[in-house]
Amino acid sequence: MSNRVALPSLLLRLLVLPFLHIPVTGQAKTFESVPDLQKAMYHIIDGYPCVRLLNVSGEIGCSNPGRGKVVAPIVKFKNADGQLSQPSTLLVAGDEMQNLFLRISNDQDFAQNVAGVLVESKDVSQSSGFSPVGKFPQAEFAPYKKHNFEWNPVGSGIMGNRYNFPVFLLSKNSTLSLQEFITKNGRRNKAEPIAVAEFDLVMQTTTVGTHDSESCLRQRSCLPLGGYSEQ
């Protein structure tokens, strides 16, 4: 048995879906209906997704690797040298996000076991600063040749990369909930459930094979950022 975290495709939310663990001794809990069972299995976790973006030359951003769900146990990313023995969903502090993505870019053995990433929310006053764009955003469009000035000192440039796994920034309350699940995972024994993330959100265009903005527009499969317009 396991706990799962699922993400519905329309609400852009993260759900924690725990499979029930009923002890051998003691009175087992009964459920009167399927909705009651679902309430016991699912825990709603709010998150803000990284999405797949298209331009004329290709793709950037994040998405499930295919059209199916991604399911993997949740583990805490503690340091840049740790190893993953199986596909895992990594819970990472905001200050460690850049180190994690650098590790993913440079270590293929590690990257192939990253099934998803959940980024903890943190107060701005407590953060050392982070920006997913580069230190010189859009340097290629600068009216001069020298691009070594750091307009954005905390920039990492990871936004311009393509990641074949889902990434979510958690809300403050969701961060606390996931940290609690991680703590329980650390104390569990083999007979107890483990928290597992289930990502049910593809975050890419609606038609297979549209890997750039031109093909996406031609097939009318692009989805607008910021919501849907009726106009």
Topology at a glance:
Elements: E1 3-7, E2 13-18, H1 34-41, E3 43-49, E4 52-55, E5 58-62, E6 70-76, E7 88-92, H2 97-106, H3 108-111, E8 114-119, E9 162-163, E10 167-170, H4 172-187, E11 195-199, H5 213-218
Parallel strand pairs: 1-11, 5-9, 6-7, 7-8, 8-10
Antiparallel strand pairs: 1-2, 2-3, 3-10, 4-5, 6-11
Overview of this protein structure:
With about 230 residues, the protein is α/β, with parallel strands linked by helices. The chain has one domain (about 5-20, about 35-120, about 160-220). It is built from five helices and eleven strands, in the order ββαβββββααβββαβα. It has helices at about 35-40, 95-105, 110, 170-185, 215-220; strands at about 5, 15-20, 45-50, 50-55, 60, 70-75, 90, 115-120, 160-165, 165-170, 195-200. The strands form two sheets. Strands 1-2-3-10-8-7-6-11 form an eight-stranded mixed beta barrel. A three-stranded mixed β-sheet has the order 4-5-9. A hairpin with a 5-residue loop joins strand 1 (about 5) and strand 2. It is globular, with a radius of gyration of 20 Å. The chain starts with a strand and ends in a 13-residue tail after the last helix.
Order of helices and strands: EEHEEEEEHHEEEHEH
Strand content: 15-25%
Q: How many DSSP H or I helices?
A: 5
In total, the number of domains comes to 1
Poorly predicted tracts of residues: 1-27, 227-231
**Global geometry:** globular
Strand arrangement, largest sheet?
Answer: 1-2-3-10-8-7-6-11
Task: Please estimate the helix content.
Answer: 10-25%
Give the termini distance in whole angstroms: 47 Å
Structural class based on helices, strands and sheet pairing: alpha/beta
Radius of gyration: 20 Å
Pfam family, one: Ncstrn_small
Membrane topology: Single-pass type I membrane protein
Protein name: Nicastrin
Family: Belongs to the nicastrin family.
